[in-house]
Specification:
alpha/beta; six-stranded antiparallel beta sheet; Chitinase_insertion_sf; binds 2-acetamido-2-deoxy-beta-D-glucopyranose; signal; glycoprotein; glycosidase; chitinase activity; TIM Barrel; eight-stranded parallel beta barrel; 11 helices
Length: about 375
Amino acid sequence: MSSKTTTLPLLLSTLLFLIQLNVSAGQAAVKGAYWYWDSGLPASSIDSTLFTHLFCAFADLNADTYQVTVSSSNQAQFSSFTQTVQQNNPSVKTLLSIGGGGGAALADTFAAMASQPDRRKSFIDSSISLARSYNFHGLDIDWEYPSTTTHMTNFGTLVTELRAAVANESQTSGNTALLLTAAVHRSADYYTINYPFESISNSLDWINVMAYDFYGSAWESSRANTGPPAALYNATASQINGNAGITSWIGAGVAANKIVLGLPFYGYAWRLVNADDHGLFAPADGPANAGTDGSMVYHQIRDFISQNAAETVYNATVVTNYCYSGTTWIGYDDTESISAKVSYAKEEALLGYFAWQVSGDDSNWALSQTGW
Ligand SMILES: *[C@@H]1O[C@H](CO)[C@@H](O)[C@H](O)[C@H]1NC(C)=O
Ligand SMILES: *[C@@H]1O[C@H](CO)[C@@H](O)[C@H](O)[C@H]1NC(C)=O
Ligand SMILES: *[C@@H]1O[C@H](CO)[C@@H](O)[C@H](O)[C@H]1NC(C)=O
């Protein structure tokens, strides 16, 4: 057979196959970012053309009523968030993110809320009505973290009930169902306590895997040596890295196309013990600026590099960037690391990637544009 006679059917079947793929995936690739109300970046300044989904962070959880609320000082910017970011990109979708890394008290409130049916109902009803009245396209649960087997079971019940309520609301209102996502730990367990994989798979559109904060300069566990804060591959035998976490989620049975990889738009600065010993895991003495948590956002790191003519290194083996000048050493993700992680997400057929958080990027959106 000549190639000419086979070309057309081949093209057609390829096209049909691609259409099927797209339908079965259900959800197109996610290029997401969180926006945080206190970051200093007005929502109107986000280049929303670079994203498919933007997460508005954070709505609060009332510790007495278990209702989801937005503080009065945030109401104006949260209620106009969707309209604001859609001005430059009418197809960008928005999700109201609930909770966040607010510490032990917030985590306790989540646990108390999820433990009883009437409290879960308060959470579910109030979050759906808030999302609709502010024109969000979805809800994102940031419970950091469910940390006992009971918490995990209740988290599963919560997302199952939330999905049922969202489906019911969509049917009654005639509106497209709200998207449902959750920000989860880097791995499928929280220090050996497994997430409720089946409920997550059945009830959430996807999970945002927080594949960062593996090493930090202010933490007891990692202040004595520099470290790659969000390495993709193992830098030590500890196996704390993005790939190990993603692999654990897939191994637990959560489909790759429900997994979105987190990218940090920030890093951590250590103080080197010896300015001449400046590699990965070099001896250090806590954060470079005493009294801080050592974190610096990407544009601050770029400013530090240019102001101090710092040396910059990309380590492609573990996938991290770092820079140093004098006794200051900063581990972070620059365009090389972000690009390698985006390629990884595509190779692993993940649903996409998200950034925490968009205001960390530089004035040229260098990270947000990389590999997107
Ligand atoms: C479904 O939605 C309707 C209208 O909002 C409400 O009255 C009803 O209780 C809901 N049912 C369930 C099972 O959530
Ligand atoms: C990258 O980091 C690893 C882990 O510390 C190290 O073994 C390797 O030599 C580094 N590679 C380069 C090119 O510096
Ligand atoms: C790093 O991970 C790879 C693959 O998971 C493994 O083969 C290797 O032994 C690990 N290296 C260290 C130092 O743990």
